[in-house]
Each structure stands twice: as structure tokens, then as C-alpha cells.
What we know:
This protein has five domains: about 20-105, Alpha-Beta Plaits (2-Layer Sandwich); about 135-225 and about 240-255 and about 270-405, 3-Layer(aba) Sandwich (Rossmann fold); about 410-510, Sandwich (Immunoglobulin-like), CATH 2.60.40; about 555-745; about 795-845, Orthogonal Bundle (Type 1 dockerin domain). Helix content is about 15%, strand content about 25%. The longest helix has 18 residues, at about 345-365. The relative contact order is 0.05.
Amino acid sequence: MKHVQLLTAIVTLGVTVFASFTNLSSPQQPLNQDNSCELIIGLNDVPRSYQNLENLLTEYHGGIAGNISAQNRLLGVVAAIPVATATSPLIDEIRASGLASYVEPNAKVKVVLFEPNDPAWSDPRESWGPKKIVANWAWNSTLGSSTVLVAVVDSGIYYFHEDLSKNYCNTTGYDWVNKDNDPLDDYGHGTRCAGIIAAAINNNKGIAGLAQVRIMAEKVVDAGGYATFADLSNGIINATDAGAKIISMSLGSHYRSSTVYNAIKYAYDHGVLLVAAAGNDNWGARAYPAAFDEVIAVTSTSSQDVKSSFSNYGDWVELAAPGGEYGAGEGIYSTVPPSNYGEASGTSFACPHVVGVAALIWSRFPNMTRDQVRVHLRKTANDLGDPGFDQYFGYGRVNANNSMQSPPDHDVLVLNWKCPPYGKVDTPAVITANVHNYGTSIESNVRVELWVNDTWCVNSTTISSLASGQTVGVNLSWLPWAQKDWNMSCRVVPVSGEQDTKDNKVWTILQTKEPGIIRVSPQSYRFNTIQKAIDAANLYDEIRVGSGTYCEVVNIYKNALKLVGNDNRTTIIDCLGRQDTWGIILSGVQAVQVTNFTVRNVLTAGMRPDRSTMHAGILLYCTGHCRILGNNMTVNTAVDSERDVVSGIQLSLFCRNNTVTGNILTRNTRGITLYRTIGSPSNLIVGNFLSDNINSSIVLESAGCCIIYHNSFLDLLFPDRKHLLNNSASYNQWVGQWGTEGNYWSDYNGTDWNQTRCSIGIGDDYRPWYKVDYRPLMIPWFPGDINHDGVVDITDLCMWQAANGTKLGDPSWDPHADLNEDGYVNSADYSILSANWGKFWEDYWGV
């Protein structure tokens, strides 16, 4: 009775455990039982189809062995075919004849599931993750294969663990932290991930890992839980060279590293499947390496198949998997050093669930390509949330049992594509697409089309041959003829026999209104985040960001872009107080401009003393000729302002010839930080307003050859705060280029040298290795205030008139009236004065 109930459940679920032909005898058409296989054929026009089908089977030395009926109505037949007969031509002929609605193997189902004897398996609290993805059903098809090597790029693996030693590969791997060949885990994180993937099964110990495959360790995470970009990159490359088919990465940062991307690309180009955790910040900011296109980004689900409260999300995620829930007694149970077990929650533990299922797929279907495995994971996942792809679950939550199903005979699709963000009238727009054959059959003459507004097929190409698992790139172009938004779609024409066509088409918007300009707004279909626009932009593009609040970390990694907000009061990048974040990052770029943004609520806590990774509202890292203009940096703070480091704006590590001007920085832990900006040409820090920054207004750490003037350093709320931290800074210029005007310091009382709360003091000593603003201002500076009395009025106009028409070197030339500092007093200076006529400095800075 128990078996009958279980079999009923199997039929109800509609799950096929084995997808192989069976050898059964035929009551209607006797055949040798050992030399026949069976097909189930659904009939269309029953009387005609039955007779014609019977005749066709006779030609192939087969016959009808049984039938399927309901209420005396014949629905289909079981056809017995000799094993020696080629079944593919027969199946093709049946489908071409129109006799059948479907043809499939008469597969067996198994009444009893594989139930491992690992103790944790019988505890629902400890085994809910693998049971949620129906791993025990998948294990009836395969437990895994030792031919599949999985690399855990993490804190190492404690390979002495009783549940890991069997599947651990000790001939590969490396410890990049300690620079030796022993990647033993001293943090525990990598061991947890490894257990989910490949803990020994059915050994009467601990847990059952998802796949009995070989695992190797690349130790890139230290005992404190941190990894450097260099170590991570080396770990990825070394795992690739060692022959890993899958790389698991349960780590990440909101900082987009070019070094890490190059390693990711290296592995991808070698056919490696890359999987990474999406992160645990509960927001849509991209985390890397997960957000790279070459990587499967994994979000976390709870036992109720909803998004875990901590899980990141966004249109950059691809799959979901069990990761648990905080505070609900719902963690993922796994191996813990040295020989223990425990539970923890996070996308870190959702990631190895996807890795384990991918390892089962490659064990079951060893001839699949990397792209085929990736698509197979998508197509066999359980669709959660909104129908189809969504930002919380991607293509769905992985299902190990579904993934054991064979791919269809025929299925082609657009794997990914790129369409330019804008086009120019009468200039070809080039679209690139990667077309993938997910099916098992070789396809010929695959047609790829480019459509505009779903009305015109404007271009097409044909792929003459596409092997199973192969991906081929194509280029299609079109000539826009008018300035407007165009709906562009790329389509792969379904091949004969293809059933699932929903992924044969992709679409987006191409703008031809303003060449070189990408517009971002929260309501935009294509560019509702700033990062999307940056990823799509080309050299010299201008990205115009509309008013709204953008909760993201913006990584600018392309040269010569201009990022312009609509208004620095209403165009807001809000990090929502997420720990260890940045607002805008400029990394290794040249000639980038960032203008008119509010960046707020960057938070950090418990940072390591690595000052090269200081967090900031805007971070410039190894940049040159970049301009940060007119931004508002506010409430970017550290939990412990004496120990942790968060700046409104920071220039870090060999930044040269950058300009920071016209920015307002209030209530940050630090206002502006200059770190190791030694050398020339100089960075220009001019005309900024800094008020009530908690730790200090400006910090110089090994920062030399900078020009710092016309800045206003105030403390309105905390008058006892220090304005300047000057640690080993040298050869900085604290006055304008005419040597006449410095900065305003609210704690300067007119007395020279160490009378202020600065670490060196403000005074007359002009020696370049000591001097700090020997020409300080007594009123906050703002444009147009020639006489520095705090208001632009008739006095300033008279001073301009007296010097109008003069140039540097003339007896009547007045450097104070040269407002734009070009060496001439002329109409350009008058324009600055008139634009601020009647304003007080409090009005200009909005104090």
C-alpha cells in the first residue's frame, strides 16, 4: 500500500526520474524482450493515425505493444522498436507525417527514492535545503562523477573533516594568503561551502553533499574574512589551469575590479562555469564578481520559497537557491572545522547549492558545454515571484530533479546580446547577439533576424550549422532614419520541432534623439539605474541622470565619461546606511566628470586598517584629469569615527591632475581625504565648502604636490572639531596661483602658527615642507566676492571696474578681481560677479 501511494504521488507530480528507453515485451506485437525499446506516441486523428502508424512501424520492423486510453477513448500507443533499428529517422518521419501530437520514450519511474543514511538527512531542520531542490530525486539518476572538478575559491577547505576528505583533491589548489601549497581553512567559510557541494554521501556521517565530485581549494580569504583582488584573481586563474569545470565564489564587493574581471574572463574563455553569491545587503546595488555577465549571480531563498530578507537582488541576478533566513532558526546545515557541523544563513550558502546542481548536471550529461549547463539550470528552475525572469529570483530557484531531464532535441535561443544605447540618424547601429543551441540535435540554416518596432525585419543572417551546445556570435546592423526611440528586437526563428520559443526573442530601446547622450531616470525602461548606463556607454558619452533617488553603488570604469545629475538637491545616490559601501567609484580612469549629485548614507563599520580601501561618498582611485564638480556629500559616516574611515570625497593612490571644486561636504566622518597622491601634476582642491565633518574637514596622508585654496572649513555645530589632519604631507600649495588667497578656517583667530587645532598650524612659515595656508581668508569664500567680505555688492563691482581690461603684469592688475584665474580681468570675471550679485556666502552655500 505504501508503494502504491508513492507511485500515485510520482504520477501526480509528473516527474520522470529515468529518461532512458526500457526493454519491455509487447502483448500485441511480440518482440524479443532483450532487443527492443519502446516509444509512447500521442495520436492525432485516431482511426487514420493508428492504421498509418502501424504500417510505418512495420517498415522499421516494429509494432504496437500497448495503448493508453481514458473512458474507452484511445489517446496514444506504445510502440516497440528493435534496438538495432535507428530510432531517430523513425521519430522524424512520425513527426513529419502529422500522425502524432508527441513522441517520447517509455521511461521508467522508480518507486523508492534514494534516501542517504547521513544523520542530518533525517532531520528536516538540517536538510531542508537539499530537500527543497529535490536532490534525493536527482540522486536516482546520478550521485555525481569524479570526472567533474569543482574549485571553491574561498577561505580554503578543512580537508581533514570526516565528511570532506573523501572527495577532496589534494593534488591541486593553493594558499594565496600565506603563499604555500596548503589551502587549509582557518576561517571556516570555505569549509561550509564545500560541504554543501560535495560532503560524502551515505557514509553514516553528518550531511549529504549535493554531488559526489572532486573539490579543490583556492584559499584567497584570510583568517579575518577578507580577500585582496590580487589573491582572488590568482585563485580563479589557478583553478582554471588546474582543470576545474566549475568555480564557486561565495564572496564579493561593490567595488568593480578590473583585475578580478580579467581573471573571470580568462576562466570564462576556457569554458569554466562561474557561480557567485549576490551578497547580503538586501538592496539592488551590484556585487562583484557576481554581477559580471560571465558569472551566475545567486540570490537566497527561505524554506517558504520567498526571498531571504538579507538577499541582494536586481536585474543582474540569474538564479536563486536555499540560503536560509536570519533569526528564524532556518540556516543551511553544513561542515565546520575541524570535524563539526553547524548552520548559517546567507547567499554564501545559496551559491554552493547552484554549484552542486551544476555538478550533477555535468555528471549526468558529461558532453554538455558550459553554456548548455548554464541554460539547463535556467530552464529547469522553479519559477518563483513574477512569471518569467524577475529581479528577486532571476530565472527561478534551482531544482536538482528537474535538471536531470534530458535537453530537448531542438531548442535554439538568444543567450545574450548587446544593443547600443543610442544611435545616430543615417549611421549604422550594430547589434551583436550570441545564439545558442541548447538542444541535442545539430541545427542547419538557423535564421537570426533584427526587427524594429515589431513591424519591420530590417536585417537577418543565417548560421549554416549550429552543433549541440554551441554558441555562435552574429552581428546585425540597421540605419535609423529619424530621431526617436526605437523598439529593437533580435529573434532566432524557431527550428523544426522546437517547442519552447519564449527565449528566442530579446528586445530593448535604441535612442536616436541625442547622439552621445544617455538619459537615466527611475521610470526609464532601459536605464533606470546609473550603472546600466555606464555599462552601455562609450568613450566621450554624457550620462544625464534625472531627479530621483538611486539606491546603488556606481562604478565608473570607462574613460572620458561625463556623469551629470539634474540637480544636486534632487538627484540623489543613497546607500541607505549599508555597511562597507561607496557612492560613486572612479577606478583607474582618465578624464571623467561627475557633477550635480547628492551622495549620502555611505556607512562602514569594523574596517581593517587598510587605508587604500577607505570608503567614501565619491572615491577616486588611481585616476587622472577627472573633475568632481558641484556635488553635495552628506552623512557618509563610520560607526566608530576614531577607528573607521569614511570620507565625503577621497583621492587615493597616485591620483594626479584631478580637480575637486564647488562641492558641499557636511556631516561626514571626514570631508576630503588625500591619500598617497604624491607627485605631479598636482590635484586641485579649490572652492569647496566643508562643514561639521565629525573627524576632520581635510586629511592629508602622504599627500604631496596638491593645490588647496578657496575652500571653507567650518564647524557650525561642533566648534571644537579639528579641521586638518596632516600626516607626513609635503610640498602642498595652500594659496591660489597668484599667491594671494588661501582658505577660510573657522577656528583661525588671526594668530600665526600653532594657535589653531590643526596638527601643524596656520601661519607665515612658507617653507614647502611645513607651510599650511600662510594667506588664510577671514570670511568663507564664494564666487564673485572680490573683497572677501561675505557679500557680492557694489564694492566688488568697483574693484572689478578698476582692474577691468588689465592682465597679469600690468601695474593696475588685481589678482583678486581675476575671478576665473586666467590672468586677465575681463567680461568673463564680470559674468561670475553678476551671477552672484546680491548674494551672501550663506545664500550661495545654502547654509
